[in-house]
Amino acid sequence: MRRRDKRIEDKTIITEIFSESVICRVALSDTPYPYIVPMNYGYAGGVLYFHGASEGRKLDLIRKNNKVAFEIEQGYEVVKKEVSCRWTTKYRSIIGVGKIEIVTDFDEKRKGLDIIMSHHGREENEYEDNLIENIVVLKLIVESFTAKQSGDWK
Question: Fewer beta carbons under 10 A from the terminal one: N or C of the chain?
Fold first, then answer.
């Protein structure tokens, strides 16, 4: 990271960004251009969980190459100044890499869905077995990341 003064190393703040943010953008390898997709997620123990349809470009690309990059941001605010070049943005973000897997085990799919639902505030969940069987749950194992804060926070 070029601006070391913006780097976040406090594990409490990093956990807060992972836990309180809503959207994760996942970048997948494709030719001739990368493919990026925003998804809601759940986070637990260094793993991001997603869910989605059982077919599509995202899954085709994961099957070819499961190495991904991701980005999560927590809030943002454009700070306007008199001089245009002095404008700035306040935010917190995490950018990282990892390997994403398509979860096939029924119980692990349920666990992943529970983590996603808990992340969004719902603790008691009921699922129809046939829906779990037909939905895809993705598990992104975070390998490395950097966290950054720009501007005063809160």
Answer: C
What is the span of the domain harbouring residue 51? Answer: 4-150
What string of DSSP letters covers 12-33? HHHHHHHHH--EEEEEE--SSS
Whether residue 62 contacts residue 102, with contact meaning beta carbons closer than 8 Å, is answered with yes
The pTM (predicted TM-score) of the whole model is 0.89
φ, ψ for residue 129 (rounded to 5)? -55, -40
CATH number at residue 19: 2.30.110.10
Write down the pLDDT at residue 82.
80
Which DSSP symbol is given to 45?
T
In the three-class reduction of DSSP (H, G, I as helix; E, B as strand; rest coil), residue 18 is classed as helix
Give me 10's structure tokens.
């406090």
